[in-house]
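Lab notebook, bench 4. Still working through the backlog of constructs that have no structural model yet. Next entry is a single chain of 318 residues. Request: give me the structure tokens for it.
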Amino acid sequence: MLEIEDLKVHFPIGRDSAVRAVDGISLSLGAGERVGLVGESGSGKSTVGKAALRLLSPTSGRIKIAGVDITKAQGKALRHVRRKAQMIFQDPHSSLNPRMTIFRSVAEPLILHTRIRGRALNGQVAALLERVGLPGQFLHRFPHELSGGQKQRVCIARALALDPTLLVLDEPTSALDVSVQAQILEFLKELHGQRPDMTSLFISHDLAVVRFLCSRVAVMYLGRIVEEGTTEQVFAAPQHPYTRALLSAVPLPQGRQSGNRIRLTGDIPSPANPPSGCPFHPRCPEAIAGVCDVMEPVFEQSGAGTSVRCHLLTRNAA
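Model written out:
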């Protein structure tokens, strides 16, 4: 349903330099798959999501949705593909036009892409709002009259209006209160139960959320995917030092710790000036001097069934 091949998204700064937000990733999502894309802030996750739907133009690489290459598609060709693919953004407040009623916001994709009008349009919008748990009295309200959770439900209703087969969710619960987060996550899980054919790319920094919703996970660091596998494989036996550090920081109930806590020093490097060799080596507690700081690792299968970009695989194999 979604195929990303060697995607690069660079933002020029000055004459001879650029921010390498996404620096060569490949990711494939089959029909009905729920894949999580995780990593720290600044790792390039949101850029991948926006580029996947051509909200950002890629610097190089290829993006296919349902077998159609949208990398250079324009006009009607791109518009046709976008009927099948929708995005839910992180901040529901900025995702809604403050001058539009809730009815108008949800109806807009139907008006643009279909011929539904009049009573049929009114009924369709009301049914979409009811589907996400909002009664009919919300139809003629404006965004400022709704809570954050209600706004996000409106955004979900709008994304579902055209019955998409691909849904990209960019941290859809991070701006909400914890109790509201749980309600939205439960709804999203129910939605996948109702639509097992719908493919989802779930972007998040919250590993617990990804574990709850996704069947496969890809871990990003500084514009690259460093580990990928089924959620069960990655959580049970993480192979990359960065993945192990992320998982060790996940809080558990009743104050329990997830094994030995791995504390990373420093911050994620600037994508405008990435380190040589492995991008993670300046912070890696297991970096091999003369190897990790010089040579870039390749993405290969590990013994645990995941794919990993790390020189430790070669050393352990030897």
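Notes after review: Residues 108 and 158 are 8 Å apart (CA to CA). The chain has a mean pLDDT of 91. Flag for follow-up if needed.
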